[in-house]
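Fold this sequence, please.
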Amino acid sequence: MSLPESLVLVDVETTGANLVRDRVTEIAVLRIERGELVDRWESLVNPGCPIPPLIQRLIGITDEMVATAPDFADVADELRRRLDGAVFVAHNARFDYGFMRSEFGRIGQTFDAPVLCTVKLSRALYPEQHRHGLDALIERHRFVCSARHRAMGDTEVLWQFSRLVTEAFPADVLAHAVERAMKAPPRPPQLPEGVLEGLPESPGVYFFYGDNDQPLYIGRSASLRARVMEHFSPRAKGQEAELARRVRRVDWEECAGELTAQLREAELLRQRRPMYNRAATSGEGAFGLQLLPGRKRPPILQRVPLAGTDPLDWRDVHGVFRTRKEADSLLHELAQSYRLCPRRLGLEGGNGPCSAHLAGRCAGVCAQRESISEHDERLLGALGAVRLRPWPWTGAVAIAERSEHSGSEAWHLFDHWCHLGSADSEAALLALRESAPPRRFDLDCYRLLVRWLAAEGKRDAVSILTD
């Protein structure tokens, strides 16, 4: 026996995962003394606020069920008596522990206990396994769960797990694993207990706030919990470490998938411009380049505004750029690679042979060594490599995403790289399609969609829409 002598196996169900705005709806406790179950207790709890419909469907606890349940204050004394003097054990324990401390804090009481996380314990004892959520443990060890996502049902699984590991591992191995599992993760001391552990391992957008709720940083990730924890790693240095020290509050939005998170992040960055996010150059001035055929005097390329226009109206437009510097940099590269004339491209002023020709890097249209048509034909061939990617479909498509963690869904409507809007149901998608706004090109949207579609398997989520 290498588990602590006094354990309380705890599970709480809540209205959500945010310690600040969400509340407990159910609590279950199993007390273990020297390996023996000595007490069992559970209670619904009136959270004093509505339970979101998605949570009601996932957990099975409805507003009607908690309407006549006791408030947390009514069960606090009985709960504290059952928790007193024992190690607090839960799956993703700091989440449950954080909510417990938060609920006690709301009624003016403190609560502290040593904490053992069974997620960490499973990782320490079964490092060859990649999944350690409660569903994975149930499947792997063939545990019996009487009511998944209900407090007592989940707590009974922890009781089965504790008996399994006690019998399966030598005392010294188990003791070392317990020590590792009881080590709290790094976090800024100003953040409340459990706030980081409450982060889900699902796609989404996260927010860091400083003093006076000042927005500091907005980010997104395919795994909210993993990415946010990276910010507070002891290895963080420089600006990352400075940001971690200034964080006073963490918030997040779960998203149906990575594309949803990317679109949401781009929207939020344009709206809020947090101080620690890299200042992005606006795509409002995005433009492409168009060759003026037969023009004798440079420059022979004109800028064509693209932002907010319909891609179907473009003719012979090459590339898409935010700034003149970005376009000039590309033209310099093409001039060197294809022996083009910087002067004819508008990169250099003056008359007579250009500097590149004098250095042997220009084929000599500026010195009458080649014709304008020969030069411009070569230029067109070079620009062909930077044409905007052709839209892979004939018309509009819908991209669907669904989060296995939260069950949330999203449908995104695109047409020729333009995002026409998003919906949270197929019915809403149909309504959106019927009243979709006109196509308006956005450079950020174009680039993120190109990257997203290039990833393996992403196109399987695309549905071609027919009239």
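The chain has a mean pLDDT of 90. The radius of gyration is 30 Å.
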